[in-house]
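Service request form, structural biology core

Requester: graduate student, group of Dr. S.
Request type: structure prediction, single chain
Budget code: on file
Notes: please return the result as structure tokens.

Sequence provided:
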Amino acid sequence: MQNVKLIKPLVVGTYAFLLSPQEKKKYGNMTHKWTCLVRCPESTDISLIVSKVVFELDPSFMYPKRGDTQPLYELNTDSDPNNIPPCVVNETYEEIIFKNPTVHFYNKFLQCNNTKIAPHKFQEHFIKYDFKEDSYTKKYLQFQSEVQQEICDLMSEATLLSKDINDVQQKYFTMKSEMGVSSDEN
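Core staff response, request fulfilled:
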């Protein structure tokens, strides 16, 4: 789809919890258990448009490059969900821009925006991104989506018309040639 731009907000975050004294003994000199994850701030299902996330950790880790192909895209150490101490949160808001997507991807993108996911176990620690005039933004995005679809339809129609014009011109020149009329004469 030419001249179409889709924008998907994502959050890359780390959530660290202090180890209990028993865990410190178990894990040696480690001080925290942590999770790194990629999520949509609107709690929509990004698995429809993201197939894999690769986490690049500090080179001191045994396996510094790790991939995850399963939603929720996260990397973590074990933690006791019944005893979650205060959390240290570090999040980065990003926007990924998809230019000139295929119609198939465009439809998946729209489906992604309309598919909510269940709350994450760390949901209470997530930073709330306040999108002012959220309903206006949603209406604008819906309108933009409809306009982009109309543009796509019109571009397809224009392509067909252009092909028809070329066919008619070709027939015209063929007929002129068959009649022995030179291109200088009209």
